[in-house]
Amino acid sequence: MQRLRLRYAKRGRLRFTSHRDIARAFERALRRAHVPMAYSQGFNPHPKISWIGAAPTGVASEAEYVEIQLVTPVEPAELVAVLDRAMPTGLDLLEAVVAAPGGGALADRVEAGRWRIELPGVSPGDLSAAVTALLAAPVVEVERLTKQGMRTIDARAAIVNATVATATVASDSPPPDVTCGILEVVVRQTTPAVRPDDVLSALRVVADLEPPVPAKATRMAQGRLDDGGGLADPLAQDRAVTQG
Amino acid sequence: MESVFPRLEPLLPRVSKPVQYVGGELNSTVKDWDATTVRWALMYPDAYEVGLPNQGVMILYEVLNEQPDVLAERTYAIWPDLEALMREHGVPQFTVDGHRPVGAFDLLGVSFATELGYTNLLSALDLAGIPLHAADRTTEHPIVVAGGHAAFNPEPIADFVDAAVLGDGEEAVLEITDLVRAWKAEGSPGGRDEILTRLAETGGVYVPRFYDVGYLDPASGGGIEYVRPNRERVPERIAKRTTMDLDAWPYPKQPLVPLAESVHERMSVEIFRGCTRGCRFCQAGMITRPVRERSIEGIGEMVRRGLDASGFEEVGLLSLSSADHSEIAEVTKGLADRYEGTNTGLSLPSTRVDAFNIDLANELSRGGRRSGLTFAPEGGSERIRRVINKMVSEEDLIRTVSAAYAAGWRQVKLYFMCGLPTETDEDVLQIAAMAKEVIRAGREASGRKDIRCTVSIGGFVPKPHTPFQWAAQCDPDTVDDRLRKLRAAVNSDRNLGRNIGMRYHDGKPSLIEGLLSRGDRRVGRVIERVWRAGGRFDGWSEHFSYERWVTAAAEALAPLGVDLAWFTTRERTEDEVLPWDHLDSGLDKEWLWDDWQDALDERELEDCRWTPCFDCGVCPAMGTDIEIGPTGRTLLPLTPVN
């Protein structure tokens, strides 16, 4: 039995997929690529796949993680090539490493995520002011619709740090390229999770910030927080062993 | 042609299940618009999750896109949340492949599996900027072509479509493409009228505007007096299309695999087309004759290619009655051998109790997955099963399900209909008796108490081109009353009843389906009125409004001297001109009438596959013949990849 840990990206139009969509697409790609998956026992056997907190529907990601179990070992680099070819466009396999023995669970190496949120039509100045107000507030309560109905959560508590950058976002077609504020925010994993939408709601609460068009969010990284507020690569330990 | 995606994208975060609008399915095709000469938009007029797995659309999509100069893209019904935003922001109906505006295509082909998609057709036309009425369209607009089973009576949508094709579409779409290509190359002479005439001249494309319909006075019954061509060059009757050699059309070769969840999470291979079991309620069985089997090797090859291309983990062997394939045992054993140990499931979604056995079931579950067992006795009593010509006996059913329970199955589903011609309360109450017997026998055979039987009941809707096309549809109150009594009968025995589940809907949607199924052109104004009043997604109980249909029918039909009951609960006479009489399914109308009389006399009819021809008329009329095995061949093991 071989355990492999994979990092993949969810890009472009595929950000509209839900976690269930991704899981199905992934399983089918594994079958098309003839990856020798291990299956669970029982009435309805399932391939052994463990998902690590998936990015929400509508959010792109450069740092999604999943662990799979194989009945016969494969070369990680080869798996990346074969599986990436079998995946739908926009679901891109980036890296595979063999899980190092005794290294503990992958989920334990993920405690926070860094989001990049593009806000077309919002000036960097307005965004900076709103972010300053947000970071200054001890508590920012936002409402979110959950399966249990409207829920109020504190979005501020989960935010580790936030910075603002400026970019010109190239547009595929009209409207022409626009300058927009970009928010980079590191958010701790909590229950319930604070998502990019909740961060935007928080900016609305503290500074009446209303993006004229929907923001585009991308998860850039996940990992354990280091002392400087950065994120440690969750695969680093396994990679070191894989590369011997 | 510009993509509307940049304008659509900002709307998507605001709607439910946005992934259904983004396309990008595995095996989908986006061609260069300018490099093609004939462009089809193909629509399944229901939600994406229902429409995407539709085999008809998938087949035509691939057949058309294999032509180098032809482009085919798909479009589906838009849910009301996005429809409202698209109207607000001026985004037109789009295809999910290239996100091109549907109004820019040469043709819009719409596949109607059910009549309840008619209001969704109107939404799509309107969102596409295509005039609702065919008469108001110009050469700027696509030619709107209806297909699918409902196209065997397209009269209710005659005002909204330019043409309809009856029967199999594989060859028909290519012929239509050829005519459109040639006409465009000539510079579109004679405009829309000319291309429609050229299509009609083939005898296989129905163009409603070229036929005038005359009606009798309400005093004389209010029915149809005549349907006749209003110009030269068009035939009196329009014939259905039949694709004879299924092995020559192994589509879909590259099944579409959606990102979004759909209603059928499996790959489908059609193992034969047509059915001659002769169930009198079944329109599909009547209009798809004769039986044409795909060979065992053709099936094996489609499964192999399709699994490689899709990664699906289940294969459905589709047909109207899959266990009737002349080599079904060899097919299932061959596939089970080939895919042993690969966790690939096999299923036969439609099987008759009398053609099924436990060996077959065991082959199906060898792949490691055991799907549920479903049978359709359709009628509760022996008498009503003679009326509908569904000749399965209760003994067969009990024997088969007992064996299944004994072999480890825990759950069996049984389908029935309510509201059948000549039906009484007693016929329906027999369903309860049968379900209880299933549980009693199943407990005995398996030695377990926890087995289940789910009884699913649909309202019967009389359909064109069937022996029941003359029948009075049962009114919803009677259907609902019978179902209440049935539930009481199931629950009367707590010991057995607690293992019996019942699923059914009230009878109202069936009555509207009945109006649309057997309606004539006058029903078009009811559809338009319902749509204007907000009617959408009528196949969905949360969107369907019976009151809206009843009100619209009363308002639109009253000036014409007919009403909803006239179209539905009224029995037709032998000499009545039926709205679809000029549309030729090959079935001889006299034979259908005789079969209707046999039904009333509770007389059964055999299957022509294993008894002599009983002269339904299809083969001589269409120049076709039964195409069945056995071929005597078997599936060889696949050579392992790598």
From TrEMBL, chain A:
<dbReference type="Pfam" id="PF10105">
    <property type="entry name" value="DUF2344"/>
</dbReference>
<feature type="domain" description="DUF2344">
    <location>
        <begin position="3"/>
        <end position="196"/>
    </location>
</feature>
<dbReference type="InterPro" id="IPR018768">
    <property type="entry name" value="DUF2344"/>
</dbReference>
<feature type="region of interest" description="Disordered">
    <location>
        <begin position="217"/>
        <end position="244"/>
    </location>
</feature>
<protein>
    <submittedName>
        <fullName>Radical SAM protein</fullName>
    </submittedName>
</protein>
From TrEMBL, chain B:
<dbReference type="GO" id="GO:0051536">
    <property type="term" value="F:iron-sulfur cluster binding"/>
</dbReference>
<feature type="domain" description="Radical SAM core">
    <location>
        <begin position="261"/>
        <end position="503"/>
    </location>
</feature>
<dbReference type="Pfam" id="PF19864">
    <property type="entry name" value="Radical_SAM_N2"/>
</dbReference>
<dbReference type="GO" id="GO:0003824">
    <property type="term" value="F:catalytic activity"/>
</dbReference>
<dbReference type="Pfam" id="PF04055">
    <property type="entry name" value="Radical_SAM"/>
</dbReference>
<dbReference type="InterPro" id="IPR023404">
    <property type="entry name" value="rSAM_horseshoe"/>
</dbReference>
<dbReference type="InterPro" id="IPR006638">
    <property type="entry name" value="Elp3/MiaA/NifB-like_rSAM"/>
</dbReference>
<dbReference type="InterPro" id="IPR023862">
    <property type="entry name" value="CHP03960_rSAM"/>
</dbReference>
<dbReference type="InterPro" id="IPR007197">
    <property type="entry name" value="rSAM"/>
</dbReference>
<dbReference type="InterPro" id="IPR045784">
    <property type="entry name" value="Radical_SAM_N2"/>
</dbReference>
<dbReference type="InterPro" id="IPR058240">
    <property type="entry name" value="rSAM_sf"/>
</dbReference>
<protein>
    <submittedName>
        <fullName>B12-binding domain-containing radical SAM protein</fullName>
    </submittedName>
</protein>
